[in-house]
Amino acid sequence: MGAAHIDLGKSGEDQTALWYRSHGFDVLDRNWRCPIGEIDLVALRDRLLVVVEVKTRRTDAYGVPALAVTPVKQRRIRRLAARWLAEHRIGRRVDVRFDVASVVGDVVTVYERAFD
Hints:
Layout: H1 3-22, E1 26-34, E2 37-45, E3 48-57, H2 71-87, E4 95-104, E5 107-115
Parallel strand pairs: 3-4
Antiparallel strand pairs: 1-2, 2-3, 4-5
């Protein structure tokens, strides 16, 4: 993976984190890693904990970036979320939602409840 690709991904995650903050969320974690993978963002507002997969592209010439979140990827994200919750004590019951953020250039589109 080249440096430009990494920079593009980081830019998309930065823009997405700003989107969640502007919608009243606290960003609790970014790029959390464990042996089975990575969660891009974890955000919390009241009792709603959102696990966010961010997909960033320069253009949508090959389709909307969010389409890259396949059922296999969704299963991995659910397992990662369970592991994240087991390792982090939030101190209250939370409802968990899975979002996908699709970033093309400077446009962030968030698909709330993208999968269960």
